[in-house]
Amino acid sequence: MALLDENRLLPVDQGVRALARALYDAVKNAPIVSPHGHTDPRWFAQDAPFADPAQLLVTPDHYVFRMLHSQGVPLESLGVPRVDGGASETDGRKIWRCFAQHYHLFRATPSRLWLDHAFETVFGFDTPLSAATADDYYDRISQALTRPEMRPRALFKRFNIEVIATTESPLDDLKWHKMISESGWDGRVITAYRPDAVTDPDFEGFGDNIEQFCALGGQSSTSFDAYLDAHRDRRGYFKSFGATSSDHGHRTAATLNLDRAGAKALYDKVLAGQADAAEREAFRAQMLTEMAKMSVEDGLVMQIHPGSWRNHSTPVHQRFGRDKGYDIPTRTDYVAALKPLLDAVGEEPDLRVILFTLDETSYARELAPLAGVYPCLRLGPAWWFHDSFEGMWRYREMITETAGFYNTVGFNDDTRAYLSIPARHDVARRVDAGFLANLVATGRLSEEDAYEVIQDLTHRLARQAYKL
Amino acid sequence: MALLDENRLLPVDQGVRALARALYDAVKNAPIVSPHGHTDPRWFAQDAPFADPAQLLVTPDHYVFRMLHSQGVPLESLGVPRVDGGASETDGRKIWRCFAQHYHLFRATPSRLWLDHAFETVFGFDTPLSAATADDYYDRISQALTRPEMRPRALFKRFNIEVIATTESPLDDLKWHKMISESGWDGRVITAYRPDAVTDPDFEGFGDNIEQFCALGGQSSTSFDAYLDAHRDRRGYFKSFGATSSDHGHRTAATLNLDRAGAKALYDKVLAGQADAAEREAFRAQMLTEMAKMSVEDGLVMQIHPGSWRNHSTPVHQRFGRDKGYDIPTRTDYVAALKPLLDAVGEEPDLRVILFTLDETSYARELAPLAGVYPCLRLGPAWWFHDSFEGMWRYREMITETAGFYNTVGFNDDTRAYLSIPARHDVARRVDAGFLANLVATGRLSEEDAYEVIQDLTHRLARQAYKL
Amino acid sequence: MALLDENRLLPVDQGVRALARALYDAVKNAPIVSPHGHTDPRWFAQDAPFADPAQLLVTPDHYVFRMLHSQGVPLESLGVPRVDGGASETDGRKIWRCFAQHYHLFRATPSRLWLDHAFETVFGFDTPLSAATADDYYDRISQALTRPEMRPRALFKRFNIEVIATTESPLDDLKWHKMISESGWDGRVITAYRPDAVTDPDFEGFGDNIEQFCALGGQSSTSFDAYLDAHRDRRGYFKSFGATSSDHGHRTAATLNLDRAGAKALYDKVLAGQADAAEREAFRAQMLTEMAKMSVEDGLVMQIHPGSWRNHSTPVHQRFGRDKGYDIPTRTDYVAALKPLLDAVGEEPDLRVILFTLDETSYARELAPLAGVYPCLRLGPAWWFHDSFEGMWRYREMITETAGFYNTVGFNDDTRAYLSIPARHDVARRVDAGFLANLVATGRLSEEDAYEVIQDLTHRLARQAYKL
């Protein structure tokens, strides 16, 4: 018995499925181009074995622990560390058993598909995970992790990764990236510039971050001009480690284009800690436009990821810290929000800005119409909670008619769950194959074109959009 | 000729349909668990025959008369009584003929499916209702209603209802529920606590309601403390008639968690009639949190039904009163709105809050992500205008990947149209069977799991979620 | 080889497709009823040959040039004239080659379908447009345009147009319409009243427009009363050229119903150029209600087309003027916005107001519930970016269950691209046939009813709704 259906996610109509299968077969072994993600560069630098199954697959995966918690499992039972150093489960087997016992909660979710994909293709399981098989799973995975072919670099090759981007703060010294490049290993691991820690006044330690940042950028002062120069410097430094993009995770997509005096005054107020909520938002907004202007100069592709209310539960945030599954999407406007940036640089021929959303209502209403006319705009793939079969299908249905395929940028896995990367790209390829086959079957695309488009969606558009 | 297709609402692909049919067959005769609805307890208390066909099926059903009115039929012609006592049609046959003549308006609507289901399975019709068959329908239904097997209690058994909840105001003395329980009849009819009349300052007669309410709750004063104690008392009284839930129908999902002094001051201002619109909204918001806190104490499951702009047409409201089909859904936020309540009690292990929406954009963006992490939250079924094939399908498609099946609570019929109850549950079972079959056919769920999930969705989750 | 699949857009399941095909066949040759559009009445008045292929199919079609521009093609290269008179390509063949070279951008878009439809059915091509075939296309189309059967009136007959409405400003003297009617030609071309230039204070030249408008309307003053009388007069004048409708393209759906004194004061302030943004919006809102009241008097069907942020890019607007593909949809509210108008005249038996939207989230949440109860309201078809296969399908799925078919008004092509009209109506007929066949296959509609409904959707509802 297999965990995976070989025709999973393909259309149910047999005629359409046959074509979808053929399209999928044309790309199933194509290399993985992963231009946006959150794997740890340390893995590739040190190439050390992964820890136990729970540390690999449960404790760090917010998709997994949020679902268990939603049904009453305390985060402590899953080994999530407490801020106050209070007790949290450390026995990997106990955590694993709890996870296995609740595995039915993941029925029909993407997590289930990603996990089963890893269980079957990486570890060779053919019986589903459950309370009954928990220990067997734990033992076999533990053992596998000791083998050389399960180390990060070996998996990189096995997963057929052509290039993978990590994401770092401008305060990062990129030492792991340096170690990778000095190691002589031929895997292509690049960084990306994520300056939220120094562009978002609400980020923890913002004032200290600015000071450290300007110093790192070779600036002796923290004036606005020095601060902008520090960005230029750090962007250059990131580019020297392969970065081709920057990434911006503000709560909204607000942009602003103040004159220089206004921007300086705002910066001074923010830095002095005297800015109110509207002014702090204005600063984030202004910085998106500043970043776009620097992109015109240095060619970094800009990614805007708005719309997540981070750390929504105050008590959970206080108890466990950031990124504990409590990031909740919110309604997100793009049309008014992006106008200042677009009026400033939207027609620049060499600028590229990739927009993401967690608010699907903006696909057909705002994002496709914007990307379908502004030369600088492209649309990122279905993101986060929408990195799923239905999410991707809705994305294609709502975007393609207005923006076409060529204003999209292929797939991003956007993950820190290393073992899920092949599964995620596989899901995207299957959805695209099914979507294209359906277009052919309904006379909206020729079969010949479909074979070309599936290559575009699988790797060509990602390389072009991210200048890889 | 039948009015109903025996494979209605099942997927069109023959392979998928066969599995869907098998899944449906596994639950089609399962008992009806109806944890939220608006049937009249008097029916079950008195067990009197229903009046004429128009009084049973047309005049009280806002789905029906709103559609006729949208095409120009005056509400008076449908027997809807006027507030000023002006003339309104009282001849059941005339009303029925008008309805029959416009029956084509219901093509492809859920009302059509519910009505045809009752016409065929309860009354034995096999020719569609139309102007030509109107009199025959009227005569045969009139006659049927005189028979003992058409009385409320007989239908209760025939419909295979395991338990049904009605909804009452805290000002209700529950005399019909008392009469049912004293009658020795074994049908399980329970109440639910719906305090809008005393928590919403914009409710008609709010001041008087509070006075009556505090007195009913054994309080000699109407101070805020006495008011809260009256809630505790009435909730206990409702529990003694089987209530396991409360229900809250505010226009928004706003919540607030003021300190005690602030809450008292707000209450005093509201009670004095001196609160402005924002303060009246704040009071409703505060009361949702107060109710949640009481739920932590007494275990009542809390239901929040926001997002309806009630009685939208002022002239119609003045002429015909409340609930005349003019309730229009509005955009509804949950992420900011619920935060105060969730920060206060969202991690309480024994709290359960069921969220409903009329704004489908919140399914994938807000509700599934919220319910997929907060242990107290569950999602109510597709509601009101979305209690339909497409509505339910979109609900499953947009919610399942992020919240799974186990953060949902099965089906609610939410109706006062008694004869439509079997039809409504049948629709839900068919949609779920089709949805699950499609998951199996696309490799997203094992067949074995599908047979388990269909039982969960049909009755197990409803019993668990509502503590029945 | 054909450019078009004869079963395009029909459901993939063979059984459902057969029924869809039969339904489609029943209406594929039905006459075109086009109650809302933007063809140029001059074409029908003068019946002159169309200019070169680029002037016919590329330069004036914002769907086409916006997509090319989104991939970096300067608007100048497509012959779009500059406001400052700067250089813009005038060589039709060069423009055409650029278009042909980028034709892959249109894969899976409605533009591709409309263009291929014209290429095959009007010009007889059977090889796709591409860089390789660009010159052959250009030559053959150029030659065809010289032939008498390619003139506007001949195409009118060939396209089987029963009636077509154009759209004119109240400042228009309707001379082309006069010329048509005096020509003795039997094609039915009617106008529609689009008063934005004199109801929207933000319209270019508003003050001058008002002066000219009142004079045209036979008024010696521009007082509010005279202004309203001028509307009455011009509406009457438009009716004498066949107008049965007015059309209103405000950014929002806001309405207002001030008392006479308040409305006059607002008008005076607006006319004096002293109104702020909120007051200018209030004036637009007030004028929607005034227009509705006049519709009660004179019977013109009112169309409200809100939700587009026109000319979003300031630099592009400055360089190329209005309507250059930079109109971006925005979130649009109807429930609060329309209440003043609906409270004023929403129950008037002879009023008809047709609502359009670019915000699909309003379909199921707001528009279907509103149209499903207010007797004056009807829903326009899927509009603009949603005039597409997926757009129409979502429209039917989200509207039908609550509003039924009979609160919709059939199809509008809403286009200035004359050659696309048959293709657009054909797409609508195919989508409707497929949608109905799917309802039949899932037991939600009888086959007999489906054959009646397809006629309703194709032409009957349009004639009824627009009083044609």
From TrEMBL, chains A, B, C:
It is an enzyme of class 5 (isomerase). InterPro entries: Metal_Hydrolase, Uronate_isomerase. One of its GO terms (molecular function) is glucuronate isomerase activity. It catalyses: D-glucuronate = D-fructuronate; aldehydo-D-galacturonate = keto-D-tagaturonate. The keyword Isomerase applies. It comes from the Bacteria. Pathway: Carbohydrate metabolism; pentose and glucuronate interconversion. Its EC number is 5.3.1.12. Pfam families: UxaC. Keywords: Isomerase. Belongs to the metallo-dependent hydrolases superfamily. Uronate isomerase family. This is Uronate isomerase. It comes from Thioclava arctica. The lineage of its organism: Bacteria, Pseudomonadati, Pseudomonadota, Alphaproteobacteria, Rhodobacterales. The gene is uxaC.
